[in-house]
Amino acid sequence: MPKMNSLIAKTSSHSQAMGPLNEPKPSAVRCATWSPTKQFICLLVLLAGSTGTTFPQRLPVCNILDYGAKADGQTVNTAAINQAIQACAKGGGGTVYVPSGTYLTGTIVMVSNITLHLEAGAVLKGSSNLSDYSMNGEQRHGLIFAQNAGNIAITGHGVVDGNGTQFMDLNKRRIEDDFDGQFTRQGKKYMYGDPDMGDGPVLPKDRPGNLVVFSECKNILIRDITIKDSPLWTLHLADCDHVNLTGIVILNGLAYANNDGIHCTTSRNIHISDCDISAGDDAICVTGFGQKKGVAENVTVNNCTLQSRSSGIRVGYGDNSIRNCVFQNLVIYGSNRGVGVFARDRGSIENILFSNITIETRLHTGHWWGHGEPLHVSAVPLYENIKAGEIKNIRFSNIIARGESGIVVYALKESPIQNLTLEQINLTILPTPLSASYGGNFDLRPVLDKVLAIFKHDIPGVFCRYVNGIKIQDLELHWVNPQADYLSHGIECENFQDLLVDGFRGRQALPGGKAAAIALNHGGKVIIRNCEALEGTETFLLHSDLTDQRLFINNDLSKARRAFQPDKVSFTSSGNILPPK
Description:
Elements: H1 4-16, H2 26-31, H3 36-51, E1 61-63, E2 72-76, H4 78-90, E3 94-98, E4 101-105, E5 108-109, E6 114-118, E7 122-126, E8 144-147, E9 150-156, E10 159-161, E11 168-173, E12 202-204, E13 212-215, E14 218-223, E15 226-228, E16 235-238, E17 241-246, E18 249-251, E19 262-265, E20 268-273, E21 276-279, E22 284-287, E23 295-308, E24 311-316, E25 321-335, E26 337-343, E27 349-361, E28 375-379, E29 391-403, E30 407-411, E31 417-429, H5 435-438, E32 441-443, E33 454-456, E34 462-465, E35 467-479, E36 491-502, E37 505-506, E38 516-529, E39 532-533, E40 539-553, E41 562-565, E42 572-574
Parallel strand pairs: 1-3, 2-4, 3-6, 4-7, 5-8, 6-9, 7-10, 8-13, 9-14, 10-15, 13-16, 14-17, 15-18, 16-19, 17-20, 18-21, 19-22, 20-23, 21-23, 22-24, 23-25, 24-26, 25-27, 26-28, 27-29, 28-30, 29-31, 30-34, 31-35, 34-36, 35-36, 36-38, 37-39, 38-40, 40-41, 40-42
Antiparallel strand pairs: 11-12, 32-33
């Protein structure tokens, strides 16, 4: 929102330019000399007149300065801000106006029918005193909190500053015991050999709760504000319904763990658009966590730019199911993982679409979940005697990805993934400076069995395990200066059923050796068509223990050294260009 003086001045100038028959209205002239609160009301009236909107004659606007707030960056203004909110609420709701300046505060409690408007230059800065975040001596909260409320908005071009740096030990690295180094390619030296802080994460001190929390709320709007330096989750929507988040900037410390950007737990009808998010932990999460039974559903994310030391987008976890979500027109950069879909608890995940996304990932040092995968889908249990929930109907479409690892799709026999589509994927796998110290492993954390936490595994372009119904269509795979000996096949699938590879262009990573453009083991119902072996292909199709080999048609293998290994196959074949003899 423009500063009011300048916007009002523009209104007056426009009126004067119309000539003597259209003199500026006296109300517009008076506004420029009024207090900020009156200016704000006047601006709303002027805008209402220009758009035809009808407002009540008396707009309830409460300026926090009128309730004792001080913009000196030192006075704790918790009581003053909450008094302004309560005063507006008594009148049936209205706008709590925060003028330019820095206001130190503890927990602000939002209630129904309130808009918190942060003027440009206004900063709500979190106190460094933990006692300022408790309510009635009970649960510790963050900076802004609402529960069982509706019709709430936070607007303006101001800043919510979590002051998270005050709650971090920047000279100590956080270490967790959630994997066993003996299963990694590097053995016990994995991760613990880093000489300095590297990519973090740093060790958190005792810290406040999630920065901005809406719990069991309906009809929420957050627009145009900046949220920065959160010590924990930044914006948490817990069991909420009908939420619009648009034009938000989130700028968190990239070395801080658990400072997720936007985290929606068992929430419905959530629309996120035009946001710019940088976070140490996942940038945007949709999970099934929650104390009540429910479903996380009808979530859309559009036109956002995301950076994370974990996942740009994470879908999954929790006992409640997740369904009907669309993520499109996104840029993910500098991240550990691009997009991740994870079944770890009882909740199922279904009908999820990712489209029109560019992704750049790399390996990171330190205790971050992920291993440079642009796309990751996995179903493995986190707790004893609990089977991971079902993942089905997941589609990735029109993706351009550059990363230091390949696409990983991994499940166990008891919880296979159903109906996965990878279409129109342009994948480039880059060399990594961390090849010797971190490379050549899969990372499935968090997981019950530490054998599967971080473990040695060759890196193909695309890896699929225990998937029923795989469509890989129009995948183009390139390897840039491949040297690491753990780089392997172009596409590798094992323990699968119903596989379609259509329009694949690529090859294995390294010349010579046993890797192939496509490697299939223990599966059935296979169709391979319209594919092209690129220059340097050794074997196009390496296969073992396949049943029901259906079609092998219209494939160009002229640049491959051999078509099949072993040579005997039982596909119905036609229209193929085989390697020269």
